[in-house]
Amino acid sequence: MMSAIPIILDGDPGHDDAIAWMLARASRQLEILACTSVSGNQSIEKTSFNARRVMTLLGIDAPFAMGRERPLHGEPIHAGNIHGETGLDGPALPEPTVPVQPCSAVELMAKTLSAADKPVTIVATGPLTNVGALLILYPELKPKIARISIMGGGLAHGNWTPAAEFNILVDPEAADVVFKSGLPLSMAGLDVTLKALVFPEDFERIRALGNPVATVVAEWLDFFYSFHRSIGYAGAPVHDAVAVAALVKPEILTAKDYYVQIETQGDFCRGATVADHYGFSQKPPNVRALMDIDRVGFIDLLAEAAAWYGKEPA
Ligand code: BDR
Ligand code: CA
Fold first, then answer.
1. Please, which residues have CB within 8 angstroms of residue 110's CB and are 6 or more apart in sequence?
2. Which position among 29, 68, 201, 229 has the lowest Cβ density within 10 Å, counted as fewest Cβ atoms?
3. Non-local CB neighbours of 117 within 8 Å, separated by 6+ positions
4. Does 78 participate in catalysis according to the annotation?
5. What is the whole-number distance in angstroms between the Cα of residue 1 and the centre of ligand 1?
6. Ligand 1 atom, smallest distance to 165 CA
7. Would you say the CB of residue 239 lies under 6 angstroms from ligand 1?
8. Are 309 and 211 a contacting pair, CB within 8 Å?
């Protein structure tokens, strides 16, 4: 039997972050070593509270630490219009029982990497503030990072500005550090995540599973679907779960390697992920960009994960 991939979950829960963490916790191919929060969908206080509520709901038994209040440069940007005032509006969640470690998210990441007996994969589903800071402050730990599986960016277009996707736009300087790191990067950008759509029949299938986690997941998806329908989407794109699916069920995804740079300046394009489609830069690819997904396979994966919570040993 293959040994599990050790991972650190770094995100800004957020409905799709929470569903990504639900998938990670239920996947026997993954071992969650630590969880960290980042300012993004809401303030760091709110995303941290949500992260701990989600960990409690899912039974993630790993240390948790909070990220910083702000991106590396610039002012924080939040997405309360999508995820609500709490950053995770919708169903009632348990009060968190997971303690906050007396160190920063970056320090917890560094400690976790140092202690790991094999390289660790970081699953980053929020702005890249923590991961960028980790690489700046602890460059000697790069060999302890196997891969960074990112939800962020979009080679074709953005979703927060015409050019930029939210996670990259919030902290382009951090993203720039990550994309220049030379580490193996998987990018679940909008090119693929806008195809990872959930429809009512999918969340009703999950709701029908009847276990407490499945019920909450169905309600998160219901909330996320209603918002996205109201702005013209056909379904709810569960962006962040694609970054986990890439690790546990890569066969449902297709990918292409690109040299991708982050625009950190620009009047119109700050935060854009600029892919060199035609080799102008003469640079080797630095990113494996996920481009397409078997949507039904993705829904099956989410539903199987949600079902796991009804069967797991007490
Ligand atoms: C990303 O932005 C956030 O609102 C979501 O959680 C996801 O990580 C999609 O652009
Ligand atoms: Ca997110």
1. 134, 137, 138, 141
2. 201
3. none
4. no
5. 34
6. 10
7. yes
8. yes
What confidence tens digit (pLDDT) does each residue in 94-140 have? 999 999 999 999 999 999 999 999 999 999 999 999 999 999 999 99
Sign of the C-alpha dihedral computed for residues 23, 26, 30 and 31 taken in this order: positive
CATH level 3 topology of 5-308: Inosine-uridine Nucleoside N-ribohydrolase; Chain A (3.90.245)
Q: Count of CB atoms within 10 A of residue 129's CB?
A: 31
For the chain, the structural domain boundaries read 5-308
Atom of ligand 1 nearest to the CA of 240: 8
Q: What pLDDT digit, counting tens, does each position of 151-187 carry?
A: 999 999 999 999 999 999 999 999 999 999 999 999 9
- Is 191 close to ligand 1, i.e. is its CB under 6 Å away? no
Measured in whole angstroms, the distance separating CA 269 from the mean position of its chain's CA atoms is 22
Q: What is the pLDDT of residues 61-79, one digit of tens each?
A: 999 999 999 999 999 999 9
Our answer on whether the CB atom of 167 is closer than 6 Å to any ligand 1 atom is yes
Kindly state the average pLDDT of the residues 233-250.
98
Q: How far is the CA of 131 from the centre of ligand 2 (A)?
A: 14
